[in-house]
Specification:
- With about 280 residues, this protein is mostly beta strands.
- It has a single domain (about 65-280), classed as Beta Barrel (Porin).
- Helices cover about 10% and strands about 60% of the residues.
- It has helices spanning about 1-20, 50-55; strands at about 65-75, 80, 95-115, 120-140, 150-155, 160-175, 180-205, 215-240, 245-260, 265-280.
- It has an 8-stranded antiparallel β-barrel with strand order 1-3-4-6-7-8-9-10.
Length: about 280
């Protein structure tokens, strides 16, 4: 038994030695020409993937021009007096008018053009229609008694106004962010205004002449041109590189002195705070 175990052990050792002799040794590390061994290269790490913020380019480029168009609103009523000297009756009967102009609604459009860097120029046209009304009062002396004038007053509607404004601007076009574009602007404004006023109220003076009655009478349109100034800001949010929507806020003001029928002069004003909302196109 012992003899067989010795024979088996010797056979196992012989097979192990033979397999070790047949296995090739690992290759030596590479060397340079001077005999310096070069360490094996480190395993290559995969390049980091870019984040969404790195792969997303700005949607709004620094375009040459921005076109805008939209609906304009002018909040806040205004008022002005009128003191004509014309007579409403054969006897001297001066009348006064106090007019009120309501909120305006219309259209606004234009262009901002980049000249150099962030400096640009702009032109815009605003057209607004405003409803108006007023109160007309007449004072007429009594035909038989001194110091006993007869007075009457009436409310008149339909005294509307239209305003056409042309606005020339020097603009600062802020650098574009990913979607937002802001333009600050100011410059002169030129207005053309048409305002309806009462020209001659209709007065009746029946017997026994103790009281007069008043009706609307005739009206006339004052057509005036005036120069003013404006300033404002436009903020646009672009859905693509070319198309967006925005809000424009402008304050413009102009005035001129006018008279009706040679009466006292008064200041006819145009403009005010204006807000326009609409489309933006960048080129």
């Amino acid at each position: 038994m012992t003899r067989h175990l010795r024979t088996l052990t010797a056979a196992v050792l012989l097979v192990t030695a033979t397999a070790a002799a047949q296995t090739p040794p690992p290759p030596p590390p590479p060397t340079t020409g001077q005999g310096v061994r070069v360490p094996p290269p480190a395993p290559t790490q995969p390049a980091p993937r870019p984040t969404p913020a790195q792969t997303s380019a700005p949607r709004v480029a620094n375009n040459r021009a921005i076109l805008f168009a939209g609906v304009a609103f002018q909040p806040g009523p205004s008022s002005f007096p009128d003191r004509p000297t014309s007579s409403a009756t054969p006897a001297p009967a001066p009348f006064t008018g106090d007019y009120r102009v309501k909120d305006g609604l219309g259209a606004d459009g234009g262009l901002f053009l980049r000249v150099r860097g962030g400096v640009g120029v702009g032109v815009a046209v605003s057209s607004l229609s405003r409803d108006g009304d007023g109160t007309v009062a007449v004072s007429s002396p009594h035909p038989f008694f001194f110091d006993r004038p007869r007075t009457a007053a009436i409310d008149v509607d339909g005294l509307d106004r239209t305003e056409l404004g042309t606005h020339l601007s020097l603009a600062w076009i802020a650098p574009a962010s990913r979607r937002l574009r802001v333009v600050v602007f100011a410059g002169p404004s030129f207005f053309a205004v048409s305002q309806t006023v009462v020209d001659t109220p209709a007065v009746t003076d029946p017997y026994p002449y103790d009281a007069i009655t008043l009706a609307r009478g005739s009206t006339t349109d004052l057509s005036e041109s005036m120069v003013g100034v404006h300033g404002g800001i436009d903020a646009a949010w672009f859905f693509t590189r070319r198309v967006g929507a925005g809000v424009l806020a402008r304050f413009a003001r102009g005035s001129t002195s006018v008279t009706v029928n040679g009466g006292e002069s008064f200041d006819l004003e145009a403009g005010g705070a204006q807000i326009a909302v609409g489309l933006r196109l960048a080129f």
